[in-house]
TrEMBL record, chain A:
NCBIfam families, A to Z: deoC (TIGR00126)
PANTHER family assigned: DEOXYRIBOSE-PHOSPHATE ALDOLASE
Cellular component GO terms, alphabetical: cytoplasm
Record protein name field: Deoxyribose-phosphate aldolase
Gene3D superfamilies: Aldolase class I
GO term, biological process aspect, one: carbohydrate catabolic process
Reactions it catalyzes: 2-deoxy-D-ribose 5-phosphate = D-glyceraldehyde 3-phosphate + acetaldehyde
UniProtKB/TrEMBL annotation, chain B:
Domain (Aldehyde dehydrogenase) ranges: 23-255
This protein's name: Aldehyde dehydrogenase (NAD) family protein
SUPFAM superfamilies associated with the record: ALDH-like (SSF53720)
InterPro entries, A to Z: Ald_DH/histidinol_DH (IPR016161), Ald_DH_N (IPR016162), Aldehyde_DH_dom (IPR015590)
Domain of life: Bacteria
UniProt GO MF annotations: oxidoreductase activity
Keyword set includes Oxidoreductase: yes
PANTHER family assigned: ALDEHYDE DEHYDROGENASE-RELATED
TrEMBL record, chain C:
Pfam families documented for this protein: Aldedh
Name assigned to this protein: Aldehyde dehydrogenase
Origin species: Streptomyces himastatinicus ATCC 53653
Record-stated family: Belongs to the aldehyde dehydrogenase family.
One GO MF term: oxidoreductase activity, acting on the aldehyde or oxo group of donors, NAD or NADP as acceptor
InterPro entries in UniProt: Ald_DH/histidinol_DH, Ald_DH_C, Ald_DH_CS_GLU, Ald_DH_N, Aldehyde_DH_dom
Domain Aldehyde dehydrogenase: start-end pairs: 34-477
Annotated keywords: Oxidoreductase
Amino acid sequence: MPTTVPAYGKEAAERLASMADVTATDSALRRFLHGLPGVDAVGLQARAATLGTRSIKTTAKAYAIDLAISMIDLTTLEGADTPGKVRALCAKGINPDPTDRTVPEVAAICVYGDMVATAKEALRGSGLQVAAVATAFPSGRAALPVKLADTRDAVAAGADEIDMVIDRGAFLSGRYLEVFEEIRHVKEACVRPDGSAAHLKVIFETGELQTYDNVRRASWLAMLAGADFIKTSTGKVSVNATPPVTLVLLEAVRDFRAATGVQVGVKPAGGIRTSKDAIKYLVMVNETLGEEWLTADWFRFGASSLLNDLLMQRQKLSTGRYSGPDYVTVD
Amino acid sequence: MSERLSILKTYKLYVGGKFPRSESGRVYEVTDSKGNWLANAPLASRKDARDAVTAARKAFGGWSGATAYNRGQILYRIAEMLEGRRDQFAAEVASAEGLSASKAVALVNTAIDRWVWYAGWSDKIAQIAGSANPVAGPYFNLSTPEPTGVVALIAPQDSSFLGLISVLAPAIVTGNTTVVVAAERAPLPALSLAEVLATSDLPGGVVNILSGRTPELATPLAAHQDVNAIDLAGADPALATDLETAAADNLKRVVRPHPVDWRTDPGTDRLLSFLETKTVWHPMGV
Amino acid sequence: MPVFEYAPAPESRAVVDIAPSYGLFIDGEFREAGDGKFFKTLSPSSEEVLSEVAQANAEDVDRAVKAARKAFESWSALPGAERAKYLFRIARIIQERSRELAVLESLDNGKPIRESRDADLPLVAAHFFYYAGWADKLAYAGYGADPKPLGVAGQVIPWNFPLLMLAWKIAPALATGNTVVLKPAETTPLSALFFADICRRAGLPKGVVNIVTGDGSTGAELVAHPGIDKVAFTGSTEVGKAIARTVAGTKKKVTLELGGKAANIVFDDAPIDQAVEGIISGIFFNQGHVCCAGSRLLVQESVQDELLDALKRRMRTLRVGDPLDKNTDIGAINSAEQLARIRELADAGEAEGAERWAPECELPSSGYWFAPTLFTGVTQAHRIAREEIFGPVLSVLTFRTPDEAVAKANNTPYGLSAGIWTEKGSRILSMASKLRAGVIWSNTFNKFDPASPFGGYKESGYGREGGRHGLEAYLNV
C-alpha cells in the first residue's frame, strides 16, 4: 500500500497525475467508473443498520459527543441569513455551551459566499474555519465562469473551505469528464495568491443520484479530480445524508487511499439532528476507516440543530439528569 | 400346412441405452403363473447394478437439465410407442400375472393412459410443488422442486406392468434417472418396455432395467453411495427394513412399501417423493 | 482518550430469573425425573453453573409420550381456528418476554445478545405467528382436502439455536394438530423449559407439549419409542443416519435437518463490500455454529488478493467477548467438547499445509473461546474443506471458471446451502440451478424467514421446515 498523503497537499496532486490515464478521455473515465465494484443496496443498508445497533455508553459516549461537536460544520444557508444571524452562529460555534467551557468548539461555520467576510471577522482568534458553499449552490445550475467567480469571491473573502456542488445533470447523463473538469477548475479557483488553497469539499447531492452505484462513481470521480472532502448533500432536497450513503463514501475514501495513498475526508450533511444519529456515524467511521479518520480534519457533520442535541446529551452525562431545550442556546 | 415355428426372444438387460447380457452370463427361468416356461431372463448381478447406477448418474445432468416441455414430449412419445405394442404387452401381462386376455388388456390400457397422465405433469409439477415466499424483508424468494438424482426403483412384484409404470413414470418425468429392479418372477413386461424406451427419444441411462433376484440387486443399490433415493414398492417387509437401514448410510430418500391398488388414481405422492425443494433468495434493491 | 473505545454495554441479567433446578415438563406439570437424576447446564462464556436440569430416562420418555398420546385425541379434534388461537397466544407471549428469553439464550448458549435479540427471538415469534395462521387453512395447503395430523411427534433439537429450533419444530406440529415430545440439547435446555412455562401461561391443554431434558440417550429413547408417529431431528449427520436406521421398517415419518459444508462463491464482478459482509455473516454468525454456514469460501482467482485483504481487514473489527455485551459480534463456543472439535480440525488444517490466520484478539480467560480464523491455500482434499467444523473457521479455496466453481461446490456429501456473489443476473440463475443445495443465497447469506422453506439435499437431510412445505412433515401425506 502506498504511503498516505493528505488530499490537500502537493504530493496528492502528483499521485493523482499518476492516475491520469483513467481521466484522459470521457470513455476512459466511464470505463473506469463503471468498472468499480457494484453496490448491493440491500446488503449495504443491512450493514449500515447493524453498525447502528452498536451501544455506545458512558465513557465512550462522552468521547463520542465531544468528538462529534468538534466535527460539526455549523451551518446556516438561508435566504434570510443576515450578518447578525451569522455572527450569532459564530459565537455559538466558538463557545457552544456558555455554562460549560470544557465543551470543544465546532470545526467550522458554513455559510453562503456573501457571508464569508462577516464570519471570518466574527471568528477571528478562534480555531474555527469558514466554509462557503459555492458553484451556484444548491442546484449547481449556472455556467462554469459563474461558478468559478462564485468560488474565487468566497476564497478572496477569506473562506478556508469551499463546499461545491457537482452538476448532477451532467453526471446523470453520463458526461463524467465534464463533471471531472468542473471540479478541477473549481479546485484551481480555490488557490489563493500566496499559493495556498482553500480546501475543497465536493457535494454530490446523493438524493438526486439515487443509486449507490452512482454515489460510488461520483466519489471516485471527485477524488480523482482532487476533492479534499466528499460530501453527501446540500441539505436542500428531500433525501439528504443517510447512513448507507455515507457508508459508500467511507468505503470509497478507504479504497481510494489503498489505491493511491491519498487520504480524503467525508462529510455527511443534512438530516443529522440527534446525538444518537451522530454517534452512529462515528461508529461507522470507526469500523470502516478507523481512528485515522476520526478527527475534524477528516470527518465533518454538516448540521445545525445537531449541536444543541449533543449539548443536551453532554449535560445529561455530566449531571445525570435530562436537560431541556431551555438550557441550550437557540441561535 | 404346419404351424409356423415362432421365433423366441432373448430377453436382455437395459443399461445405459444398450442391451447387455448379465455381466455374470447367468439367466433364470421365467414361467407363467401355472409354471410353464416362458423365457430365460438375465440374472443380473451386483456388478450390473453398479453399471446401471453409473449409467444413471451419467444421464442425470442431461435429463434433469432438459426442459420440462422436452421431457413431457419424450414421455408422450413413449406412450405412442406403447400404444403400438399393446397386444404384446397384454399377452406378456396375461401370462405373467395369470390374467384373462381382457383383464390384461384393461391393465395395459390403464398403464398407457397413466403414462400419458404423468407425461403431462412434466411442466406442471413445479407450479404446484413450488412457491413464491413472502419473506419479511427486501428479498425475492422462490422455492422450486428439483429432481433428487439417481433413484433405485424396486418394482412392485404383484403388478408387472401397470405397477412398474406407476413407479417409473413419476420418477423420470420430474428429471430423475433410474435403476429399475423388475418384478422378480414377472420381469418380461419390464424387459420389453426397455425395447420401447430404446426406440423412443429417451436418452440412454435415464431408465436402466435389471432382472434377477430382488434381494441380490436391491441390497447393493440400497447401500450404493451414489444412489440418492429408493422406492421399496416391491420389497417384502423384512427386505424393506434391511434396505431402509442400508439406505440410511447416505440418507437416501426412501419410499416404504405399502399396499396399493395400482388401478386407482395415483395422486401426486410419487411425483413429489423424488423432488428436492430448492429455495433461492436474492435482494431487491436498486 | 486517544481512540474510540466502546465501553462495556452489558444487557442486564436481572431480566431473567433462572431457578436452581428444573424438572421435566410432562402433561402440563414440571416433575422430577423418575430416578431423580440431574445434570448441570453451564454458561459457556464463564463456565458458571446456571441450573440443574432433570435427566429423563426411558420411563420418563414413555410417560411423556403417553401424555402426548392422550392429549392428541382432543387437540387434533379441535377446530383449526382454536389451535391457531393458542399459537397466536404463544407468539404474543414470546414477543412480550423476548428480552428475557434473549438474555437466557445468550447465557445458556453463549451467543451474542445482539443476535439472540435481533435474530433468534424475532424469528421465534414470527415462526409461531406464521404457523398459527396455517392451522385453520390446511385444506388449502395443497396436501388434499382434509389432511390429517400424524399423531405424536418426537422432536430432538440442537444447541446452536435452542429456542428457534424449538419453534421450527413445535409451531408446525401443533398447527397441524399433532402433539409433541421435544428434547432440547443437553448443553442448552433452559429456553425450552421457559417455553414450557409460556405454554402454561397460554393455557395450552396439558400434554400437547412435553419437554424432556437429557443427553443423547434420552433422544435415542424418544426416537425409538414405539408410541411416536413422527421423528423430527436437527443435528449432526452422524446422528441423523442413526435415526434413519432406528426408524427403518416402522411407520414413523421422518424429517432430518443435518450438517452442511456450504460453498460461498464469490465472482470477480461481485459487489465486493457486501460480499465481504456476506462472508463474515456466513461463517461468523453464531460463532459458526450454523449448519448452513458458508464454511467454504470459493473465490475467483482474479479477485482473490483484493477479497482476502478486505476480509482480513473486516475480521480485525470483529468483537469477541461477553455474549451479554451489546457490542459483541462473536460470543463463546457452546461447550468444551465443541471447542475441542474445532481445535482439532483447525490443527488438522495447519498440519495438512493450509495457512492459518486470525486477527489479534484477546480472549477471555474463563469459558470456551475460539478466535475467528481463516485458512488460505485450502484444497478439496483437506479435512477442513470436507468436514463440518461448526465453528468460526473459514476455509478459502479458489476457482477460475463458473464450471469449476460448481464442481467444487457440489463436491461434498452435503447439500444444505450455498452462496453466490456476482452482479450478473443470468449467472446467478444459472449457478443457482446447478448448485445441489436446498437453500441458495445469492448476493446475501444466512437469511431466514418462517415463510421460506429450509432443508437439504443429499446427506444434509430430508424434509423442509418453514413455509407451506414445512406442513408436509406433520401431515399424513
